[in-house]
């Protein structure tokens, strides 16, 4: 379920200042001994309806609960809030295998963004061959995991058997040792950790384990109303050193947990929220990010859907069409209406002020670009007090027709000779010294076991590099031409194909897309990642908007450079489908039916405004308030004409 309404404008400011104060306090403890030792549990600050956030610190010394510098972030989720929904990683859709290929791995930020969640934290332990893998890499989750009533990972041993179970109403249960495994009947959401930290209000964690690391822990209040999702930052001297199991349990008790479980920690410990434009925002300082600059690819997450914190402006909603959008919201009292909007976060445009005082607001924006993303804020003033929402995002629809230009078997000339310092992407470039045109897929695979049979169709085999021990060349260059009869404003190019590993595409000499490639590329540049499990067995799909900026009526030249992931990668593959996506006019039908004392007018498309005139030739004027179908004209006026304006 997509939710566009998420974060009050003050949240980002509060998060930054709270975190910054925690860092200052922690750093000051090292530089200024006058700062008293203390364990400070931060206040719970609402960030969504039913979700609060806290940031806490431990300054070591005689007055502190713990023996080292610590910064701790926590979410408190009100399980009694009817708008709260919980979500964990669903089963992988491609060749699910229990205890082997159960979920696709994602960074916490990507998991939040992919599922339009409002808050996310890492959860179960999981298998992984590397910390930084491509999105969707198949992984095995340890212990019980249930997503929307489907068992993703079964409880198969006593290991990782400390579980949290939730039914469809978010009624929660902690089972400290789920072995033998209890029935999952009626369980809608479940996650598992490797052991208990708190049981019946007592710290049951081991005192002998002394390693201090980043930690993730989940807990429940005694009345099972509140779920605590906690991350202890660590491995960052001068900021936060991490905690032991026993200290993590101590924090859970301080937050109010009556039962608590230890989840996967270390560099996986990451708490993320969604900002009002749908982007992920990290709340804590992940040690993985501190070390590498990026989040780990994690196999298990726990997510929360929630509504915005109620305020003066509520229920903000955008209903976009192709060139129009209706913006609706409610206010606590009668107020004016205005929408600020634009194609960037700077906005810059206004709907104009509607001075009428209403509580249910409707503003229609017009003159928008089909298939474009817009930022917007709503603004209302009551009794001289102005209220402005944070920025939200909508994307206009695009009524289009899609026509295939060429398919995977399209023929390409290719070369392995470096094209650095050559204008090889230009339409007039002489490629007569390149290979003869060969149909896709074009491929090389020098594995001793033979080419992967799932890479198909293998139509044109290309040479390997004898100077590189018979492995493929790092880079292969491709050129092809295609014809379009005309170019329509607002058109786009839709690509799908099999590309192993990375590529840069050019149309008529201009770069149009990069796939798994760094910002610049020369002949020896390696791809930054690879598809699927390293073979071209799943489609890459992407769209290039504003095709009219690059296309010409007649013959067009498409060029691509395909790069391998490393010097000893045994294969390389290339083939593309191309479709031209063109906008089509949007029409609406107007119907009129009599009602008592008037007329009811109906139309079957959004984004139109009803107009009326005393004569067929006009002048035409907008009918006040007639932006939604149906609309009743009452009392009936003789000799009136009606039409729709886009």
Could you outline the blueprint of secondary structure elements for this entry?
Elements: H1 10-31, E1 38-40, E2 45-48, E3 51-59, E4 70-78, E5 85-88, E6 103-105, H2 108-115, E7 119-122, E8 137-139, E9 145-147, E10 150-153, E11 162-166, E12 172-175, E13 189-193, E14 195-199, E15 202-203, E16 215-220, E17 226-232, H3 245-255, E18 259-263, E19 271-274, E20 280-282, H4 287-292, E21 301-305, E22 313-320, E23 325-342, E24 349-350, E25 354-365, E26 373-382, E27 385-388, E28 392-395, E29 400-406, E30 411-415, E31 438-439, E32 442-445, E33 460-461, E34 475-484, E35 492-500, E36 502-507, E37 510-515, E38 540-544, E39 554-563, E40 571-583, E41 590-595, E42 598-603, E43 609-613, E44 621-622, E45 631-633, E46 641-645
Parallel strand pairs: 32-33
Antiparallel strand pairs: 1-3, 2-3, 3-4, 4-17, 5-21, 6-8, 7-19, 7-21, 9-10, 11-12, 11-13, 14-15, 14-18, 16-17, 16-18, 19-20, 22-23, 23-24, 23-25, 23-26, 26-27, 26-28, 29-40, 30-31, 30-34, 32-40, 34-39, 35-38, 35-40, 36-37, 36-39, 41-42, 42-45, 43-44, 43-46
What keywords describe this structure?
4 domains, single chain, mainly beta, Immunoglobulin-like, Jelly Rolls, disordered N terminus, 7% helix, flat, 646 residues, 46 strands
